[in-house]
Structures are given as structure tokens and as C-alpha cells.
Amino acid sequence: MDMLMIQLEKDTSIPLYEQLYEKIKKGIIDGSISVRTKLPSKRKLSEFLSISQTTVELAYAQLLAEGYIISKPRVGFFVEAIEELAYVEKAVAHPTLKTSANPEVYIDFNPGSIDTEAFPFAAWRKYAKDAIDLHQKELLLLGSPQGELELREQIASYLYQSRGVLCSPEQIVIGSGTEQLLPMIMKLLGEKNRYAIENPGYTLTHYIFDQSYQQIIPINVDQDGMKIQQLEQTDANVAYITPSHQFPTGAVLSASRRFQLLNWAAQDKKRFIIEDDYDSEFRYIGKPIASLQGLDRLNKVIYLSTFSKSLMPSLRIAYFVLPRELLPIYYKMFSYYTSTVPRFEQYILAQFMKEGHFSKHLNRMRKIYRKKLEKLTLSLTPYGPSVSISGEQAGMHVVLTVNHKLNAQTLSERALQNGIRIIPITNYMITPTIENRDNQFLLGFGGLVEDQIPYAIEQLMDCWEIQKQVKRD
Fold first, then answer.
1. Most exposed among 123, 169, 266, 421, judged by the fewest C-beta atoms under 10 Å?
2. CB distance 402 to 109 below 8 Å
């Protein structure tokens, strides 16, 4: 080919080399520049188009890298056969996917929300700045698979003081959320286990067990937590449980059932308990409930927790505490892993805890959430006996029971059409239970602004056509 008849626009923001590359590529694809055609030399083409040789060289280099042309030393550049590439380049009309428009939500009773206004940004920022410092250059390297030792030391100290968990830093493994840690625990325990899980229970764990192809056995929950007697009648050998604040009912596993559960685990060396202590920091009535792990004397409890509720969901730092007898198995299976939590975030959290900011933050948040709970309770009182709450001893959600002619699913849909999101308890159930939960909801208050709680409740009751009870003298 003697020359390429190409028009370049020099007054546009698109670089000249990119325009040249695109036009040559288009010619090769549509066939106007034939296969095996020799392209003009860089010098001749630059003179013809009144552009620099560097511009031509950049365009040819891109075409060469993508396989549109080949270079023959001391001969020149030739167009390559690109039938398959031409197929890829053809415009394809994709069908428009029809999606139903979801109503805009302006009141959200999401149980996973936190109070973002009260986060101690100043203290967190200080340690974030410290982390990005020349003296912390070792944080650029890979750390321990179990997580930073300093952070594990802080977690071990905190767990002993607040939850009665007895452990050393060597027993703690840090990871990016329950989604990553629970499958690790399953691998540690081996194949062909049968997992007893609470019904209703945390939906995420249902998905994790299902995607890991684990056999699950739903065990019903009442006001005293998981029914251990029902567990004992199954062939399950691992029990996954949220004993201090059952999700979603808010029930606390009674003392008798705690020892009954520990005795169940002690009867077989292959039996274990996974204790998920997801939001035990926030308890408003009585003393903190002791962890199962602290009561365990036979190394049967794997303790699992997270900083999602106590600090922020986006931090993605969770951890588990292994019984000592499982440590050799962990080292054998996971010693070659790298921690899924960046070292910078681990360093920030370790300093935040070490300097006492974490405990101060928890104390402050307990007061904030307690006030929100009190405001919520006060706002619902005028609507009794049409509504009542339970599970208010701890956490950032309560169970709302509604006396209504419509079931919870229908009422939830009606609320959503009015811009209010509230989730029925039945959404967390695997199988039906004896306990009637068709009229119950999970009502989260952590993310609500305290002063707006009365308005939010009023709007919810109005859309359900529930009237305040008239006071009589």
C-alpha cells in the first residue's frame, strides 16, 4: 500500500496516535485494508499526514500489541488475518432487561444499620495517618496468616474482660467477615458433618452452609433460645448458635440450656459448637451474658465474632477463637494462606483498641442505642395491644408482633409501597415452626435518628391502618 487516506482531527481532545490507531483498525476489520497488505513506513506516513513519526510509531505499536499487524524486521509492517477478531468487534444488539422499579425507601428498619453520626472519626483518622508513615513500612509486606499479633493480643484481652472468653493470641484467626471465616471453620472440622442451625436464623449463614454443600438440620427457637432437647434427637454433630442474642428473635439461651448444650457436645469427640457472638457488646438489661466459650472446659466451642456492629460494617474485620486441639489442623491446612484483611486496617484497629478508644466508643454507643430503644418503646406504646415488642434486652433490633388481619408478608409489602422497609421474621425461617411467627417483624433501630423515631413509627402504623388507643379516665 502506497499510502493511507486518513483524515485526522487535530483540534479534538483525542490524541492523534489514538485516532490513527482506530482508523487503521477499522479499515482492517471492515476489509478496506486487505490481509497481508504492507503498511506505509513510519517516515512516509508521518510526512503524508503531517504528523510526527512518534505518533505513527505509537499507533503501530498498539496495533502490533493487539495482533492486527505483524512486524517483519527490515521489511515493514503487514496486516494480519483477524477473522475471529472481526467477529468480536461486530456490534451486537443486546436485549433490554426489564426490571421492576423498586419503591424509594425513606424509612429503613434495617437490623444491620449502625449510627454513623457517632463514629469517632478524629481518633480513627489519627491512627490512619500513623499507619501511612515511613516508620510503618513493614506493613507493606505480607503479615501473619492469622492476622497481626498486636491486634490478636488486643482482641484476646478485650474478650477476657468483656465476654469471659479464655484464649491466647495464638488461638485467634482474623479474617474479612463471617463469609470468609465460617467456610474455614467448616474445612477445619472436616467433611460429612451435620450442622444444627437455629430456625429462624441468620440468612447469610444459610447461604454459606448451602454453598459449601453442608447438611443442615433446622432446630426451632423459643423464648429461651435453641431447643436443645430437639437438637439431642437429631444426628447433628456441630451446632451453630447465637446464644447471647439470638438472631433474629432476640432470645437469650437460658442457663439450663447452655449447660445442656455443653453436655451434648461433650458426649462425642466429633461434636463442636460454633458460638456466633455478633452483637453482644450492646446489652441494656442486667449484666452481660457470659460466653459459652468461657463456660467450656472440654475445648468444644469455636467462638466467632465481628466488629461490624461495634464499629462499622465496611471495616470487614471478624475473627474466630479455636480450641487448642484444632490449632495443629489449622496450621496444617491454612499456614500458607495470607490474611484477607489489609495490614493497615489491622494496625489502625489495634492502636484504636490499645489506647482505650474502643471501650470508650462502646460505652458511648450503648447509651445512644439505649436512648433509641427507649424512644422506640415509647413511640409504640400508644398502639398497644395491637403491637408489642420482645427481644429488647440487647442488640440493635427488636421483634415487633402485630395483631392484624393481614399477615406479616402482606404488611411488609404494603409498607414498602409507602417507602418503609421492614422485614418479616418468616424471611429468616428455613421450615415452619410451632411458634406462630406469621405476624412478627424484625425492627432495627440502630440506623434511625433518635428524634425521627416517633415519626417513623407513626408512618408505619398509618400505612397499616393501626390506630392509637384512646386513653380513658
1. 266
2. no
Written as nine digits, the cell of 472 is 380513658
Q: Which residues pair with 196 in a beta bridge?
A: 217, 239
Q: Give 213: exposed, middle or buried? Use CB within 10 Å, 0-12, 13-18, 19+.
A: exposed
CA distance linking residue 426 with residue 432, whole number of Å? 8
Contact between residue 164 and residue 294 where contact means Cβ atoms under 8 Å apart:
yes
What is the residue type of 94? H
* Residue 76: DSSP 8-state: E
Whether the Cβ atoms of residue 157 and residue 166 lie closer than 8 Å to each other: no
The pTM assigned to this predicted structure is 0.78
Residue 267 CB partners (closer than 8 Å, separation 6+) = none
Phi, psi (rounded to 5 degrees) for 379: -70, -30
**Number of alpha carbons in the 13 Å side-chain half-sphere of residue 435:** 18
What is d(CA 120, CA 361) in angstroms, rounded to the nearest whole number?
7
Task: Phi first, then psi: give them for residue 4, nearest 5 degrees.
Answer: -105, 120
Helix, strand, coil percentages (3-state) for the chain, rounded to 5, are 45, 15, 40
Residue by residue, pLDDT tens for the chain (473 residues) are 667 778 888 888 888 888 888 888 888 888 888 888 888 888 888 888 888 888 888 888 888 888 888 888 888 888 887 655 444 445 555 565 555 566 799 999 999 899 999 999 999 999 999 988 867 888 989 899 999 999 999 999 999 999 999 999 999 999 999 999 999 999 999 988 999 999 999 988 888 998 888 899 999 999 999 999 999 999 999 999 999 999 999 999 999 999 999 999 999 999 999 999 988 788 887 667 789 999 999 999 999 999 999 999 999 999 999 999 999 999 999 988 889 999 999 999 999 999 999 999 999 999 999 999 999 999 999 998 999 999 888 889 999 999 999 999 999 999 999 999 999 999 999 887 767 788 999 999 999 999 999 999 999 999 999 999 866 55
Q: Name the helix (H) or strand (E) containing 130.
A: helix 121-131
Q: How many CA atoms lie within 13 A of 159 on its CB side?
A: 27
The DSSP-derived string for 12-68 is SSS-HHHHHHHHHHHHHHHTSS-TTPBPPPHHHHHHHHT--HHHHHHHHHHHHHTTS
User: How far is Cα 186 from Cα 340, in angstroms, rounded to an integer?
Assistant: 17
